[in-house]
Amino acid sequence: MALFRLCAQPGLSLALLALCTPPAAASRVDYRGCILAYPINQEVYFARKPAQPPTIERILPAILPVDSSGCVFPPIARDSADSALVATFNDYFRQLDFAPGLVSGIQKAQNLSIGIRVQPRVPFPIVLYPVDSTGQVAHPDLYLETLRQNGFDPPSLISFPWFHADLKPWDTSAVYRYVLLRVSLDSLGHPEEIETVRSTYPAFTQQIASAANYARYDPARVDGTPVRSDCLVLISFFPELSYPSQTWSADAPDTIPLLRRLLVRTVVDTNVLLSLPIPRLASTDELSVGGRIVPAMDSMSVRFEIDTLGRATFRQIQPYTGKLLEFAQALARQLRFYPAQKFDGSPIKYSGLARIRPSGVKTIRIDYLFMPFSEM
């Protein structure tokens, strides 16, 4: 049964908070006995305006401390330049109630990796949590960061051998082919068993499974101690690239094109998301704007949606001018993505924010921040 209480905060009118009974611990996502804290009430009214409100929509990375009883402490900005803006929302977070985190059934204090979404002229934040109010994973990346923040390091790849494919460069399929493997590792990171979870490229499944046996892995760790574990490895085949591939390395520089960096990935087994949307840019992360001149700007923020066919739609831009709107609409028609995929491999609609910056007179760079469609 839902409970209700009235509370007052300094500088705020009375606020009505709906407190929901949290789900039983058995229904919450468990990683090696670690269950993350999550909010059990988010219906908080907050109307304090930042002294220096943002000029464009942003997501501020932060750490949210939650003690062993579920009490919340003010968030800590990951970037010190965001500290003043993040501190504006301290009263908002003080009103929240959390189901506390658990480790082996014992309530524990935890630090949660969160994203605080702020918008011009909107006084309250929208917060992205690793685990939502149902106790299930909401953001796989934040979930993985939070596990690491609290001493639970899932296994990871160090390197993966080159592999071959017979894809044609004119392949225009909406989704890319892949092989998903489950690799059982000992405490030294050596493969003991390799299982094919799913393959949409059966002609090359055996080649990939054999290559995985020669890959290098970093074992899972609990409080710094290596332990046996299973590692989910996703090997993708993008027709925009040439094959055989090069040896994949986790420490490759960011200057390597995104598709090459995403050829091989580890996946956290949350049963939520297999892959975020991926821009179909083969050779560079810079994008030519088709002969158009990039409008004068430092940067612009764009709210967008990627449908199940990989088509982009821009919903809102900041700052807003007629020239920037026209530019964004033309850019949306030019961009193509591989759509996000659920853990079962089916494509889903996804959304996010993009920060667009000029890199030349006729080229731009785009930084993407993805989030579930329901939160846009």
Please tell me about this protein's structure:
With 376 residues, this protein is mainly beta. The chain has helices at 83-87, 90-94, 140-149, 205-213, 258-261, 322-334, and strands spanning 3-7, 15-19, 34-35, 38-39, 58-66, 76-77, 98-99, 101-103, 106-108, 110-119, 122-128, 152-153, 156-160, 177-185, 191-199, 216-218, 220-222, 225-227, 229-237, 248-249, 264-267, 273-275, 278-279, 286-288, 300-306, 312-318, 337-338, 340-342, 347-348, 350-358, 363-372. The strands form 10 sheets. Strands 24-31-30-25-26 form a 5-stranded antiparallel beta sheet, covered by helices on one side. The chain has a 4-stranded antiparallel beta sheet with strand order 6-5-10-11. A 4-stranded antiparallel beta sheet has the order 15-14-19-21, with helices on one face. The chain is flat, with a radius of gyration of 22 Å.
Q: Briefly, what is this?
A:
With 376 residues, the chain is mainly β. Helix content is 12%, strand content 39%. The longest helix has 13 residues, at 322-334.
How would you describe this structure in keywords?
mainly beta; 376 residues; five-stranded antiparallel β-sheet; 12% helix; 39% strand; single chain; flat; disordered N terminus; four-stranded antiparallel β-sheet
Secondary structure layout plus pairing:
Elements: E1 3-7, E2 15-19, E3 34-35, E4 38-39, E5 58-66, E6 76-77, H1 83-87, H2 90-94, E7 98-99, E8 101-103, E9 106-108, E10 110-119, E11 122-128, H3 140-149, E12 152-153, E13 156-160, E14 177-185, E15 191-199, H4 205-213, E16 216-218, E17 220-222, E18 225-227, E19 229-237, E20 248-249, H5 258-261, E21 264-267, E22 273-275, E23 278-279, E24 286-288, E25 300-306, E26 312-318, H6 322-334, E27 337-338, E28 340-342, E29 347-348, E30 350-358, E31 363-372
Antiparallel strand pairs: 1-2, 3-8, 4-7, 5-6, 5-10, 8-9, 10-11, 12-17, 13-16, 13-20, 14-15, 14-19, 17-18, 19-21, 22-28, 23-27, 24-31, 25-26, 25-30, 28-29, 30-31
